[in-house]
Give the backbone structure.
Amino acid sequence: MNRDLLNAALRLAADGVPVLPLRAGKVPFGNCRACKGNACGGRPNMKAVGPCRCPAPCHGWAAATTAPDVVRSPRWAAAWERAACVGYHPGGAGLTVVDLDDPAAVQWARTTLPATRTVTTTRGEHWIYQGTMPSSNAVRPGVDIKSLMQYARWLGPGTGATAPLPDSVRALAVKDPSPARRAPQTLSVPLRGHGGACPHRTPTYLDRGITMGVQRITEARSAVHATVYRTFLAVLSTHGRCGCLTDAHVARLFTAAQAKGETVRHCTDAWTNALTTLGL
């Protein structure tokens, strides 16, 4: 057993960082026998996200755990024997990793993103922020985002203070809008609410908030998709938990976004990302 890797994993787990063994090439170990051939669909016994419940490390990020008895268990012993490095689930630790794969990407980050904790990698750097978001690959040349439902290689604690996850990083995972304007299309997006009157605000307050959101989107002159996402985030942060939003309210926001060139798919993605960010 590779004691150095095991001890590093145990230290991370004690600090609340979910860990898993990775083999050569930064690849997770294969599925356990109970899930041979991915028979479980890759996420056994899970409603949405959470720890893998199989009897061996499998399913990549979902296998990550903070339980020391699992990390050092006989079930994981064979994996640590062959492990090449320690992996961890950034989203499970409340973190987002901006993975910069080359010097050009690093230079871009230094001139664009807020300073934060930095870890040197083989080809570039990991910039680590406090906060979670949907993971996304190739958000720009040489840049991946690893947070929810993703794993990263542990390369040490790095240097610098961990900064809060900024909007500029969240916006990277949002696709650019289509340049062509399209007519409004049918709304198809989960509200995750029950409708009805807001229990802590008046209907007038809600209507004013939607009107302001529509105005913010309409007046956007650049970064339209990022503006749409931030507007959805603001509306949901105020009214997303109380169930006061209706299809009519969301349709007003979607219609304003489509008038600026957004597609229904882009709107739906931005809405879903906002829900995920807020844990709704």
User: Anything to note?
Assistant: Residues 41-50, 177-188, 192-197 have pLDDT under 50 and may be disordered.
